[in-house]
Amino acid sequence: MDDRQMRPDRPGAAAPHRPAARPPPIEVRRLNKRYKGGPQANQDVSLTVAWGEALGVVGPNGAGKTTLVRQITTELVPTSGTVWVLGIDAVRHPDQVKARIGVVPQEARLFDQLSASQHLRIFGQLRGLSRRGARRRADELLQQLDLQRYRRTASAKLSGGLRRRLLIGIALLAEPDLLILDEPTVGLDVESRRQLWAVIRDYRRRGAAILLTTHYMEEAEALCDRIAVIQDGRLTSIDTVENLRASIGHQFKLTYQTRGRRRTLYGNDEAALAARVRAAGVDEYTVTRTTLEDVYLTLTKDTQQRSGGDGAD
Ligand SMILES: Nc1ncnc2c1ncn2[C@@H]1O[C@H](COP(=O)(O)OP(=O)(O)OP(=O)(O)O)[C@@H](O)[C@H]1O
Ligand SMILES: [Mg+2]
After folding, report:
1. Is the pLDDT of residue 306 over 90?
2. Is the CB of 67 under 6 A from ligand 1?
Protein backbone atom coordinates (compact mmCIF):
# COMPACT_ATOMS: atom_id res chain seq x y z
CA MET A 1 0.00 0.00 0.00
CA ASP A 2 1.21 3.48 -0.80
CA ASP A 3 -0.02 6.57 0.99
CA ARG A 4 0.89 9.06 -1.70
CA GLN A 5 -2.52 9.02 -3.30
CA MET A 6 -4.30 8.76 0.03
CA ARG A 7 -2.76 11.71 1.79
CA PRO A 8 -5.46 14.34 2.13
CA ASP A 9 -4.81 17.87 1.09
CA ARG A 10 -3.85 19.50 4.33
CA PRO A 11 -2.49 22.99 3.76
CA GLY A 12 -1.44 23.25 7.40
CA ALA A 13 0.70 20.12 7.23
CA ALA A 14 3.87 21.70 5.93
CA ALA A 15 5.33 24.66 7.77
CA PRO A 16 5.13 27.59 5.34
CA HIS A 17 8.66 28.87 5.94
CA ARG A 18 10.23 25.62 4.79
CA PRO A 19 11.40 25.52 1.20
CA ALA A 20 9.42 23.09 -0.94
CA ALA A 21 12.61 21.30 -1.97
CA ARG A 22 13.38 20.19 1.56
CA PRO A 23 13.23 16.39 1.58
CA PRO A 24 10.57 14.86 3.82
CA PRO A 25 11.65 13.82 7.31
CA ILE A 26 10.76 10.17 6.62
CA GLU A 27 10.30 8.39 3.33
CA VAL A 28 9.94 4.63 3.41
CA ARG A 29 9.46 2.69 0.17
CA ARG A 30 8.53 -0.97 -0.24
CA LEU A 31 10.16 -1.94 3.00
CA ASN A 32 10.48 -5.61 3.89
CA LYS A 33 12.04 -7.08 6.98
CA ARG A 34 12.46 -10.75 7.65
CA TYR A 35 14.24 -11.64 10.88
CA LYS A 36 16.83 -14.38 10.52
CA GLY A 37 15.00 -17.60 11.24
CA GLY A 38 12.00 -15.49 12.26
CA PRO A 39 8.87 -13.92 10.80
CA GLN A 40 8.41 -11.53 7.92
CA ALA A 41 7.81 -8.63 10.27
CA ASN A 42 7.32 -5.87 7.65
CA GLN A 43 5.86 -6.44 4.21
CA ASP A 44 6.02 -3.90 1.46
CA VAL A 45 5.52 -0.90 3.73
CA SER A 46 5.59 2.53 2.04
CA LEU A 47 4.88 5.79 3.83
CA THR A 48 5.97 9.40 3.98
CA VAL A 49 5.95 11.72 6.98
CA ALA A 50 5.65 15.43 6.18
CA TRP A 51 7.21 18.38 7.95
CA GLY A 52 5.21 19.52 10.95
CA GLU A 53 3.30 16.28 10.94
CA ALA A 54 2.87 13.73 13.70
CA LEU A 55 2.20 10.24 12.39
CA GLY A 56 0.83 7.66 14.81
CA VAL A 57 1.57 4.01 14.11
CA VAL A 58 -0.93 1.64 15.69
CA GLY A 59 -1.62 -2.07 15.44
CA PRO A 60 -1.85 -5.25 17.50
CA ASN A 61 1.08 -6.72 19.49
CA GLY A 62 3.60 -8.26 17.13
CA ALA A 63 2.22 -6.40 14.08
CA GLY A 64 5.62 -4.98 13.17
CA LYS A 65 5.54 -1.43 14.57
CA THR A 66 8.83 -1.61 16.46
CA THR A 67 10.45 -3.38 13.52
CA LEU A 68 9.43 -0.47 11.28
CA VAL A 69 10.64 2.08 13.81
CA ARG A 70 14.01 0.36 14.27
CA GLN A 71 14.68 0.41 10.55
CA ILE A 72 13.95 4.13 10.47
CA THR A 73 16.25 4.74 13.43
CA THR A 74 18.89 2.57 11.68
CA GLU A 75 19.13 -0.07 14.41
CA LEU A 76 17.91 -2.71 11.94
CA VAL A 77 18.88 -3.15 8.32
CA PRO A 78 15.94 -3.79 5.97
CA THR A 79 15.79 -7.04 4.04
CA SER A 80 14.73 -4.93 1.05
CA GLY A 81 13.31 -1.51 0.31
CA THR A 82 14.54 2.00 1.06
CA VAL A 83 14.44 4.28 4.09
CA TRP A 84 15.28 7.94 3.73
CA VAL A 85 15.45 10.08 6.84
CA LEU A 86 15.85 13.86 6.52
CA GLY A 87 16.97 13.25 2.95
CA ILE A 88 19.69 10.79 4.02
CA ASP A 89 19.77 7.15 2.93
CA ALA A 90 19.42 5.49 6.34
CA VAL A 91 20.85 2.16 5.19
CA ARG A 92 24.02 3.68 3.75
CA HIS A 93 24.59 6.45 6.26
CA PRO A 94 23.20 5.33 9.60
CA ASP A 95 25.58 7.50 11.62
CA GLN A 96 24.49 10.69 9.87
CA VAL A 97 20.86 9.81 10.52
CA LYS A 98 21.43 8.90 14.16
CA ALA A 99 23.19 12.20 14.79
CA ARG A 100 20.16 14.15 13.61
CA ILE A 101 17.16 12.42 15.14
CA GLY A 102 15.78 12.01 18.65
CA VAL A 103 14.69 8.51 19.60
CA VAL A 104 12.78 7.05 22.52
CA PRO A 105 12.99 3.27 22.05
CA GLN A 106 10.40 0.81 23.38
CA GLU A 107 13.00 -0.87 25.57
CA ALA A 108 15.51 1.65 26.79
CA ARG A 109 18.09 1.48 29.52
CA LEU A 110 19.45 4.20 31.73
CA PHE A 111 22.64 4.11 33.80
CA ASP A 112 21.47 3.08 37.27
CA GLN A 113 23.99 5.17 39.20
CA LEU A 114 23.59 8.37 37.23
CA SER A 115 21.05 11.01 38.21
CA ALA A 116 18.53 12.62 35.86
CA SER A 117 20.66 15.72 35.62
CA GLN A 118 23.84 13.73 34.96
CA HIS A 119 22.14 11.76 32.20
CA LEU A 120 21.02 14.92 30.45
CA ARG A 121 24.38 16.65 30.80
CA ILE A 122 26.43 13.66 29.65
CA PHE A 123 24.17 12.81 26.72
CA GLY A 124 24.03 16.51 25.83
CA GLN A 125 27.80 16.60 25.50
CA LEU A 126 27.76 13.35 23.53
CA ARG A 127 25.32 15.09 21.22
CA GLY A 128 27.84 17.84 20.62
CA LEU A 129 26.75 20.49 23.13
CA SER A 130 29.42 22.36 25.08
CA ARG A 131 29.69 21.65 28.79
CA ARG A 132 27.87 24.84 29.62
CA GLY A 133 25.34 24.37 26.80
CA ALA A 134 24.58 20.86 28.03
CA ARG A 135 24.01 22.12 31.57
CA ARG A 136 21.68 24.85 30.35
CA ARG A 137 19.71 22.44 28.16
CA ALA A 138 19.55 19.89 31.00
CA ASP A 139 18.05 22.51 33.33
CA GLU A 140 15.55 23.52 30.68
CA LEU A 141 14.44 19.93 30.11
CA LEU A 142 14.28 19.09 33.82
CA GLN A 143 11.87 21.96 34.20
CA GLN A 144 9.87 21.19 31.06
CA LEU A 145 9.46 17.56 32.09
CA ASP A 146 8.82 18.43 35.71
CA LEU A 147 11.82 16.46 36.91
CA GLN A 148 13.54 19.12 39.01
CA ARG A 149 12.70 17.33 42.22
CA TYR A 150 14.56 14.28 40.95
CA ARG A 151 17.53 15.99 39.41
CA ARG A 152 19.95 14.38 41.86
CA THR A 153 18.16 11.02 42.20
CA ALA A 154 19.99 7.99 40.80
CA SER A 155 17.94 6.67 37.87
CA ALA A 156 17.69 3.23 39.51
CA LYS A 157 15.52 4.88 42.16
CA LEU A 158 13.14 6.55 39.71
CA SER A 159 9.70 5.10 39.04
CA GLY A 160 8.92 3.73 35.58
CA GLY A 161 7.06 6.88 34.60
CA LEU A 162 9.84 9.18 35.74
CA ARG A 163 12.36 7.09 33.80
CA ARG A 164 10.26 7.48 30.63
CA ARG A 165 10.15 11.22 31.14
CA LEU A 166 13.92 11.25 31.43
CA LEU A 167 14.26 9.18 28.24
CA ILE A 168 12.12 11.71 26.38
CA GLY A 169 14.34 14.46 27.77
CA ILE A 170 17.41 12.67 26.41
CA ALA A 171 15.76 12.36 22.97
CA LEU A 172 15.02 16.11 22.94
CA LEU A 173 18.51 17.22 24.03
CA ALA A 174 19.82 18.26 20.65
CA GLU A 175 16.44 19.68 19.55
CA PRO A 176 16.16 17.24 16.65
CA ASP A 177 14.00 17.98 13.60
CA LEU A 178 12.59 14.49 13.82
CA LEU A 179 11.45 12.77 16.97
CA ILE A 180 10.66 9.04 16.98
CA LEU A 181 8.95 7.49 19.99
CA ASP A 182 8.02 3.83 20.44
CA GLU A 183 5.20 3.64 23.00
CA PRO A 184 6.37 6.76 24.84
CA THR A 185 3.76 6.83 27.59
CA VAL A 186 3.32 3.17 28.42
CA GLY A 187 2.81 2.75 32.15
CA LEU A 188 2.44 6.45 32.90
CA ASP A 189 -0.24 7.84 35.18
CA VAL A 190 -2.87 10.06 33.60
CA GLU A 191 -1.26 13.30 34.68
CA SER A 192 2.23 12.34 33.49
CA ARG A 193 0.80 11.18 30.19
CA ARG A 194 -0.99 14.49 29.65
CA GLN A 195 2.16 16.35 30.56
CA LEU A 196 4.17 14.39 27.99
CA TRP A 197 1.50 15.00 25.40
CA ALA A 198 1.95 18.71 26.00
CA VAL A 199 5.72 18.38 25.52
CA ILE A 200 5.26 16.40 22.30
CA ARG A 201 2.61 18.80 20.96
CA ASP A 202 4.76 21.78 21.76
CA TYR A 203 7.63 20.14 19.94
CA ARG A 204 5.54 19.51 16.87
CA ARG A 205 4.29 23.07 16.83
CA ARG A 206 7.86 24.20 16.32
CA GLY A 207 7.77 22.50 12.93
CA ALA A 208 9.45 19.21 13.85
CA ALA A 209 8.12 15.92 12.53
CA ILE A 210 7.07 13.13 14.86
CA LEU A 211 6.57 9.42 14.43
CA LEU A 212 5.17 7.56 17.39
CA THR A 213 3.72 4.16 18.09
CA THR A 214 1.09 3.63 20.72
CA HIS A 215 -1.56 1.23 21.95
CA TYR A 216 -3.55 4.12 23.40
CA MET A 217 -5.99 5.28 20.74
CA GLU A 218 -6.80 8.36 22.78
CA GLU A 219 -3.12 9.26 22.61
CA ALA A 220 -2.93 8.73 18.85
CA GLU A 221 -6.04 10.85 18.40
CA ALA A 222 -4.78 13.59 20.70
CA LEU A 223 -1.32 13.87 19.19
CA CYS A 224 -1.31 12.69 15.61
CA ASP A 225 -2.33 14.29 12.33
CA ARG A 226 -2.53 10.93 10.61
CA ILE A 227 -2.74 7.35 11.74
CA ALA A 228 -1.03 4.37 10.12
CA VAL A 229 -2.49 0.96 10.93
CA ILE A 230 -0.08 -1.98 10.73
CA GLN A 231 -1.40 -5.54 10.76
CA ASP A 232 0.67 -8.66 10.19
CA GLY A 233 3.56 -6.54 8.97
CA ARG A 234 1.49 -4.68 6.37
CA LEU A 235 0.34 -1.08 6.28
CA THR A 236 -3.42 -1.52 5.95
CA SER A 237 -4.61 2.10 6.37
CA ILE A 238 -3.03 5.51 6.60
CA ASP A 239 -5.09 8.68 6.88
CA THR A 240 -6.47 11.34 9.19
CA VAL A 241 -8.82 10.11 11.92
CA GLU A 242 -11.63 12.01 10.21
CA ASN A 243 -11.08 10.29 6.87
CA LEU A 244 -10.67 6.88 8.48
CA ARG A 245 -13.94 7.43 10.31
CA ALA A 246 -15.76 8.38 7.12
CA SER A 247 -14.17 5.57 5.10
CA ILE A 248 -15.66 2.87 7.28
CA GLY A 249 -19.10 4.47 7.49
CA HIS A 250 -18.87 4.82 11.25
CA GLN A 251 -19.00 8.50 12.02
CA PHE A 252 -21.56 8.04 14.77
CA LYS A 253 -22.15 5.48 17.46
CA LEU A 254 -25.51 4.91 19.09
CA THR A 255 -25.68 2.90 22.31
CA TYR A 256 -28.70 1.65 24.20
CA GLN A 257 -29.66 -1.01 26.73
CA THR A 258 -31.99 -3.84 25.95
CA ARG A 259 -32.79 -6.79 28.21
CA GLY A 260 -29.85 -5.82 30.41
CA ARG A 261 -27.41 -5.88 27.49
CA ARG A 262 -25.60 -2.91 26.03
CA ARG A 263 -26.01 -2.69 22.27
CA THR A 264 -24.15 -0.47 19.80
CA LEU A 265 -25.04 0.68 16.30
CA TYR A 266 -22.67 2.48 13.95
CA GLY A 267 -23.45 4.67 10.96
CA ASN A 268 -22.71 7.90 9.11
CA ASP A 269 -26.28 9.22 9.47
CA GLU A 270 -27.08 10.24 13.03
CA ALA A 271 -30.83 10.72 12.42
CA ALA A 272 -31.18 7.39 10.63
CA LEU A 273 -29.54 5.58 13.53
CA ALA A 274 -31.94 7.18 16.02
CA ALA A 275 -34.94 6.45 13.79
CA ARG A 276 -33.94 2.80 13.69
CA VAL A 277 -33.94 2.29 17.44
CA ARG A 278 -37.03 4.43 17.98
CA ALA A 279 -38.88 2.27 15.47
CA ALA A 280 -37.93 -0.70 17.64
CA GLY A 281 -39.48 1.00 20.68
CA VAL A 282 -36.22 2.19 22.27
CA ASP A 283 -36.35 5.76 23.49
CA GLU A 284 -33.32 5.87 25.76
CA TYR A 285 -30.10 5.94 23.84
CA THR A 286 -27.00 8.05 23.35
CA VAL A 287 -25.40 9.09 20.11
CA THR A 288 -21.74 10.13 20.07
CA ARG A 289 -19.10 10.60 17.44
CA THR A 290 -16.99 7.49 17.11
CA THR A 291 -13.54 7.63 18.64
CA LEU A 292 -10.37 6.40 17.02
CA GLU A 293 -10.70 3.34 19.23
CA ASP A 294 -14.04 2.47 17.58
CA VAL A 295 -12.54 3.07 14.16
CA TYR A 296 -9.47 1.02 14.99
CA LEU A 297 -11.51 -1.91 16.23
CA THR A 298 -13.50 -1.91 13.01
CA LEU A 299 -10.44 -1.57 10.81
CA THR A 300 -8.64 -4.42 12.54
CA LYS A 301 -11.65 -6.71 12.67
CA ASP A 302 -12.00 -9.53 10.19
CA THR A 303 -12.96 -8.11 6.78
CA GLN A 304 -15.83 -10.55 6.68
CA GLN A 305 -17.45 -9.01 9.74
CA ARG A 306 -16.77 -5.54 8.47
CA SER A 307 -18.64 -5.92 5.20
CA GLY A 308 -21.99 -6.07 7.03
CA GLY A 309 -22.23 -2.24 7.26
CA ASP A 310 -24.40 -0.71 9.99
CA GLY A 311 -25.26 -3.36 12.48
CA ALA A 312 -25.54 -4.16 16.15
CA ASP A 313 -22.54 -5.74 17.86
N1 LIG B 1 14.83 -9.52 17.16
C2 LIG B 1 13.88 -10.29 16.67
N3 LIG B 1 14.14 -11.53 16.16
C4 LIG B 1 13.17 -12.30 15.64
N5 LIG B 1 11.87 -11.94 15.58
C6 LIG B 1 11.54 -10.73 16.07
C7 LIG B 1 12.52 -9.84 16.65
N8 LIG B 1 11.89 -8.73 17.05
C9 LIG B 1 10.58 -8.89 16.75
N10 LIG B 1 10.36 -10.08 16.18
C11 LIG B 1 9.07 -10.59 15.68
O12 LIG B 1 8.65 -9.75 14.63
C13 LIG B 1 7.25 -9.51 14.70
C14 LIG B 1 6.99 -8.03 14.83
O15 LIG B 1 7.49 -7.61 16.10
P16 LIG B 1 7.50 -6.07 16.55
O17 LIG B 1 8.29 -5.99 17.81
O18 LIG B 1 7.92 -5.24 15.41
O19 LIG B 1 5.94 -5.85 16.84
P20 LIG B 1 5.19 -4.60 17.50
O21 LIG B 1 4.11 -4.21 16.56
O22 LIG B 1 6.15 -3.56 17.89
O23 LIG B 1 4.52 -5.26 18.79
P24 LIG B 1 4.21 -4.61 20.27
O25 LIG B 1 2.93 -3.87 20.11
O26 LIG B 1 4.02 -5.82 21.11
O27 LIG B 1 5.36 -3.79 20.67
C28 LIG B 1 6.75 -10.35 15.87
O29 LIG B 1 6.31 -11.59 15.36
C30 LIG B 1 7.98 -10.52 16.72
O31 LIG B 1 7.91 -11.72 17.45
MG1 LIG C 1 6.67 -2.70 19.65
Report:
1. no
2. yes
